[in-house]
TrEMBL record:
It is found in: Cell membrane. Pfam families: ABC_tran (PF00005). This is Phosphonate-transporting ATPase. Residues 2-229 form the ABC transporter domain. Keywords: Amino-acid transport, ATP-binding, Cell membrane, Hydrolase, Membrane, Nucleotide-binding, Transport. Belongs to the ABC transporter superfamily. PANTHER family: AMINO ACID IMPORT ATP-BINDING PROTEIN, GLUTAMATE_ASPARTATE IMPORT ATP-BINDING PROTEIN GLTL.
Length: 229
């Protein structure tokens, strides 16, 4: 589902990614851990085309976003990015929109769905996330765990093939971590491929099929945890 090979990225004279390589198989949950400054978030942002790299390749669902340092065309990039869902650590919900409106915004604007179709899909997603009763609530009325589940729902509304999570529990009270872990495990049973960046090893072991460590701009080859091990 995802293959990153030899990725390099610098900010000015500071090289942040130094040949990073990573694979996520279809239906697999891969968690990347490591100390701050190791390049985890830059890797995730590069996969989502929020940062541009100088060298390497990024292949997503069989299509190259970046190949040997050359990016795809703008049209191809738009198409490839529709296969990726990104959940930010601080939720990034629209505060002036209800939960339901947060979920139908992208499908109607990006996918061209009718409001009726997008609403039906959104309510199905909210039911799956056990949030159907919050459809007409606003973000300020929700707990941290509920906001994170809405953020996941908003990403799911675009029907991605790969879901990326940037520190999904960092803004949560530790008691709410289980809520997010439950949703991720549920998505796994549906066959969703996921890449998760976190510093929370306990959470990582709750959800991961495989955990790899990132250090000094490189993903270490030997995984540090695997359900198969």
């Amino acid at each position: 589902m995802l293959k990153v090979t030899g990725l390099y990225k610098s900010f000015g004279k500071v090289e942040v990614l130094k040949g990073a390589s990573l694979e996520v198989k279809s239906g697999e949950i891969v968690v990347v851990v490591g100390a701050s400054g190791g390049g985890k978030t830059t890797l995730l942002r590069s996969i989502n085309y929020l940062e541009k790299c100088s060298a390497g390749s990024i292949e997503i669902a069989g299509e190259y976003l970046l190949k040997d340092g050359a990016y795809a065309s703008k049209e191809e990039i738009r198409s490839i990015r529709r296969n990726i869902g990104l959940v930010f650590q601080n939720f990034n919900l629209f505060p002036h929109k209800s939960v339901l409106d947060n979920l139908i915004e992208a499908p109607t604007r990006v996918l061209g769905q009718s409001k009726e179709e997008a609403t039906k899909q959104a309510m199905d997603i909210l039911s799956f996330l056990e949030l159907a009763d919050k459809a007409n609530s606003y973000p300020f009325e929700l707990s941290g765990g509920q906001k994170q589940r809405v953020a996941i729902g908003r990403a799911l509304a675009l029907k991605p093939k790969l879901m990326c999570f940037d520190e999904p529990t960092s803004a949560l009270d530790p008691t709410l971590t289980g809520e997010v872990a439950k949703v991720i495990r549920s998505l796994s049973t549906e066959g969703m491929s996921m890449l998760i960046i976190t510093h929370d090893m306990e959470f990582a072991k709750m959800v991961a099929d495989r955990i790899v460590s990132m250090e000094d701009g490189r993903v270490l080859e030997k995984h540090i945890y695997s359900k198969e091990a």
